[in-house]
Amino acid sequence: MTARVVLGVSGASGAALALDCARVLRAAGAAVELVLSAMAERTLALEIGPGARDELVSLAERLHPVIDLGAAIASGSFPVHGMIVAPCSMRSLAGIANGLDDNLLTRAASVQLKERRPLVLLAREAPLTLAHLRNMTAVTEMGAVVMPPVPAFYLRPETTAQITAQVAARAVDLLRIATPQARAWNPDEGQQP
C-alpha cells in the first residue's frame, strides 16, 4: 500500500524546504496531499520564483484549498500516514498548539495529533520568544516532533540546496514510511563532528 502524507506549507521563510520535502516524499513512493497557506504561495514566488508553486503542485497527488475545512484530510477517517509542515510559521505553530482549526493546514495537523499519527513541524523562526517556546513545548507534549531546519554541518554541505535537501530527507525519515532517505553521519568518512 502506498503511503499517503499530508504536506502543509505555511508562509514562513524557507520555501525550498517544501519543494525538497515533496521531492523526497515522491522519491520514497508516497502520495502527497498538499495544502498551501496564502502566504506560502507568496513566499514560494518570492524565494524561489514564479514557477515554484506549479512545480510543488506537480509533485502532489492533490492540492487542497486552505479554506476547505470539508476536505478529506480534515477527517481522521481519511487514511494518511502522517504530516509534515515545511516550513512551519509561528502562526501555524500557535494554531496547532492551541487547537485553532481555523484553516485546513491547522485542522489537518490537529487530525494527526488526535489520531496519534506522526506530525513533523519544521519550525522556522529566530530568535524565539517565550510564546514560541511554549507552543513548541505544547505540540511536543501532544506528540508532534518540532524539527527546526538546522543544517547538518558535519556533512560539510557546499550549497543551500544540499542543506535543504538533507533537512527534508530527515523530516521524511521521521515519518518512517521508507528506508532512510537522509545522508547519515559516518565517522569512517573522515568527517569531524
Automatic annotation (TrEMBL):
- Residues that, per the record, bind dimethylallyl phosphate: Y154, R170
Q: What class of enzyme is it?
A: transferase
Which Pfam family, an example, fits this chain?
Answer: Flavoprotein
**Reactions it catalyzes:** dimethylallyl phosphate + FMNH2 = prenylated FMNH2 + phosphate
Q: Which domain of life is it from?
A: Bacteria
- Location of the Flavoprotein domain: 4-166
Keyword annotations of the record:
Flavoprotein, FMN, Prenyltransferase, Transferase
Q: Which residues bind FMN?
A: G11, A12, S13, S37, S89, M90, R91, S92, R124
The EC number of this protein is 2.5.1.129
Could you tell me what this protein does? Flavin prenyltransferase that catalyzes the synthesis of the prenylated FMN cofactor (prenyl-FMN) for 4-hydroxy-3-polyprenylbenzoic acid decarboxylase UbiD. The prenyltransferase is metal-independent and links a dimethylallyl moiety from dimethylallyl monophosphate (DMAP) to the flavin N5 and C6 atoms of FMN.
HAMAP family noted in UniProt: ubiX_pad
User: Which family would the database say this protein is a member of?
Assistant: Belongs to the UbiX/PAD1 family.
Q: What is the protein name stated in its UniProt record?
A: Flavin prenyltransferase UbiX
The organism encoding this protein is: Tabrizicola soli
Which gene produces this protein? ubiX
